[in-house]
Structures are given as C-alpha cells and as structure tokens.
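Supplementary Text 2. Reproducibility record for the structural model of the 261-residue chain.

All settings were left at their defaults, and a single model was retained for analysis rather than an ensemble. We include the record here because the model underlies the residue-level annotations in Supplementary Table 4.
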Amino acid sequence: MEPTILQIALLAIWAGITGIDLFDGLLHIHRPLFSGMVIGLILGDLPTGLITGATLELIFLGAMPVGGAQPPNVVIGGFAGTVLAITSGLDPTAAVGIAVPFAVFMQSLITLYFTMFVPVMHKVDAEIELGNGEKAVPNANYFGMFVLFVMYAGVGILLTIGGTKSADLITKLPEWITHGLSVGGGMLTAVGLAILLKIMFAKRYAIYLALGFILVTFFKAPILPVAGIAVIVALIEFYLAQEITSSIKNNTQTQGEEDGI
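Retained model, structure tokens:
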C-alpha cells in the first residue's frame, strides 16, 4: 500500500511523541504493543498492527539500559517492523527480522546525540552556579525533547517513505528468504523472553510457567484465557504477600509491647 501524505505526517508525529516518551514521558506508549495499535489505526490495518506490535514486544520485553549500555531502540524497532509489515504485506514474524537492524542503527544515533548534548549540560551547570538553575534546567529539558522529537519524526518519515518504496522489492523476494526472516523473527522473540526470564525468574514461580506452557502446548488453550488465569494467580500472590507482611508486622509490634520495649 502507498500511505497518503496525511498518514505519513501522522506517523512522523507519532514517532516523535513516542521518542520523547521513551526518555521523558515514561507513559510507555512507546512500547511496540501500544505503538503497533496506533500505527495500524493510522494506516488502516489494525489487525496487522496489533499482531506485529505484540510480536515485537516479545523481543524488546527484557531489553533495558544498564548503565551506559543501551539496547536496540525499541521505538524505531517497533515503528519500522509495523510499518513494513503493513505497507509491504510482509508476515509479522518476518518483519521482526527486518526491524532489529533499524533499531540498532537508531540507538547509534541516540548515543551520538547524547554525546553531542554534553556541552549543553556543562552550560546548564554553569548557569546553576550563577543562580539561574530554575530557568536553565527546564530550558535544557525542553530543548532536548524538541531535538528528540525532530530526530524520531525525521526517521519515521524516512522509514515510511522508504518502506513503501521497498514494498515491491520485498514482495518479490524468493519464498526461502521470507521464510528465513520468519524463522529468524521467531527465534528473536524466544531470545527476548529468555532475557526477561533471566532478569526476573524465581524458582517459586517456575510452576506457573510450566502450567501455562502445558495449557497452551498440550491442551491448545487460547492465549487470552491463559492470560486471564495468569492475572488471577498474580493477584492471589500479591494479596497473600500483603497479608503475610501485615501479619509479621502485627506480631512484631505485639511482641514488642509484651517485652515492655
């Protein structure tokens, strides 16, 4: 499909907004799961936007910055994959394999931008020492957000126009190449989940992971009911933990009073 000028403009604005949200807004509208839905609405293909966004979310689910190390850019990764999937009719899992290089490239640009922003921060430090911090700090923040918006919007325009130009080429690729991209994309989702499990896996929750795997794999249970069960189990665990904490606190206070302390 060939996006209209209005769609390209809306996509550019959305890319800029999500770019700001990643570093400053923190409303998490930049996540592929949500961003894919918005992109699908703009391009008139909501199902593909949701499926591609959800697939990309699995990749970036456990990707997070640690110190100065930055993971591939989740905003442009989700944006590129979803736009390419819709404009070229590419399978969502195959679009994933194409999206990751764009995400890596964008993170390189962001690292370069952060480096170039250092003199601005030195200027802000000098203004703070002069007693002008109340004005200098907000101005620096707004300037940084403006630059981020322009960067992401510009990349969004290039990706949208470039994606439509390459749509014919992608659709003419041999079946073995597109199949390979699909297989690679499926492997990347597994890697994303593995990274997440490495960070937050606990032995006490392993039984729930096994339960979900059995329900989906062997009993062919739909994902939505399994997710609903997971939410219920999480709430039960949460409330039980609260009750235990409250009980321990009450017992400690009672023992203290009995000891006369």
